[in-house]
Amino acid sequence: MTLRCLSLNGLMHGNGFPTESLVRGLAHDPAFVGVDAGSTDGGPHFLGSGENMHSSRRAVKGVYRVLLTHCLAADVPLLVGSAATAGADTHVEWTVDLVAELAREEGLDFDLGVVWSEQSTDAVRDAIDAGRVTPLDESPELDAATVESSERVVAMAGPEVFVEALDRGADVVVAGRCSDVAIYKAVPLREGYHEGLATHLAKTIECGALIAEPRGGDCILGTLTDESFTVTPTNPEKRTDPLTVASHLLYETADPTRFVEPRGVLDTSAASYDAVDDRTVRVSGSRFTRAENYTVKLEGARWVGHRGVAAAGIRDPTAIRQLDDLLATARTKTERKAERLDVDAFSLDVRVYGRDGVMGEREPTPDPGHEVGLFVEAVGPDAETVDDLLEEFTYTLFVSDFPGRQTTAGNAAFPTSPAHAPVSPAYEFSIWHRLEVDDPLDPFRVEVRPVEGSG
Length: 455
Hints:
Residues 92-407 form the Acyclic terpene utilisation N-terminal domain. InterPro entries: AtuA_N (IPR010839). Pfam families: AtuA. It comes from Salinirubellus salinus. This is DUF1446 domain-containing protein. By secondary structure, the chain is α+β, with helices and mostly antiparallel strands. The chain has 2 domains: 2-299 and 432-452, no CATH class; 316-412. Helix 1 (19-26) packs parallel to helix 3 and helix 3 (57-73) packs across helix 4 (89-106). It has helices spanning 19-26, 45-49, 57-73, 89-106, 121-129, 144-149, 160-167, 180-190, 195-205, 242-246, 317-321, 323-340, 383-399, and strands at residues 2-8, 32-38, 78-85, 109-116, 133-135, 152-155, 172-175, 220-225, 229-233, 258-261, 264-267, 272-275, 281-284, 287-290, 294-314, 347-353, 372-380, 420-437, 445-452. It has a 10-stranded mixed sheet, sandwiched between helices.
């Protein structure tokens, strides 16, 4: 048996891919085209706010237009996972509306599968009461108060939701939050392929041509057999080798030889990576162990306040040598202003780029250069309060005295006017837990509806 599948770079940014790469991939008659449209990489904002995509609707619509017209013309199913970044109901609705609009504009008729991943407060509370929810990583035990304070909660679906939609006749599937791997594993699972190889292939191509060089959004063709799989970029200007393919297992994994999915664990410790030619790599030896209990990840986000930011640069060597004292003075003045304003709770975070802005306390070489950049973030109960607090911090930073100072002001240079600006409401992840289920479809709602664009 041989199964081919085509993976595109993620749509979360609306950056798209070369249309020629899609056309070349479709010429190989793949069993499906897969797109991962979401992630938690951008933080909790999109889940908490319900906002859709990092990119504009116009940019995303242009990408979907190419996808829909080419995949439907080739009679190849299109599977989209984690719709519009966070995969909550509002993101699925946004994507479905976009797809329906394109169908009308292009005169397309097809059956659309829709997977809903958002969880009700009652359902999560019932699962807690039944002892089916356990923490992931360092999360605390989940309680009802945390669930109720969360703006939205989604469950991360496995491949079964795509199988269900395809079995009901879907030509295009738009799914809410799901595992990246689920998008690309569903059809191989449906067709009875070796689960270790199918899972490893899915993990390898989840981000399209991220495994190819030169880097950049593009398409990857995966070919699966009973003994191995191969991956090849459809853009002739790109190449892969065993290192670029094997190293992808370092991406978003704590252990490159052990990858946990809802159905079980992928073991790549005995996998072999062999170059077929300068553009194609063959992988074999992957193993999969089924889990005793099927679990899905729960993600929730809650509002914590309003956010404002400021940026500044410091080049005075005397100020840089005393930077921590300078920042402490600005922080103290800001805290006093908060007291005068009767602000009970706020946060102020300062990152010093050029010293330890990226790694913080884990930075092994925290010696600053001849200049440093400051990024200041404040979160408070409302936008006006945040503006007041940032004004105090930036002004104090600008004029504070320190030993050896030779100016009356100008400790820091601010690249914008005003020096600080509101950004958006701020959210934090509130739920990062595991839910045990009896049936992989239980937490999700799957429907298939006709889309008639030519009528």
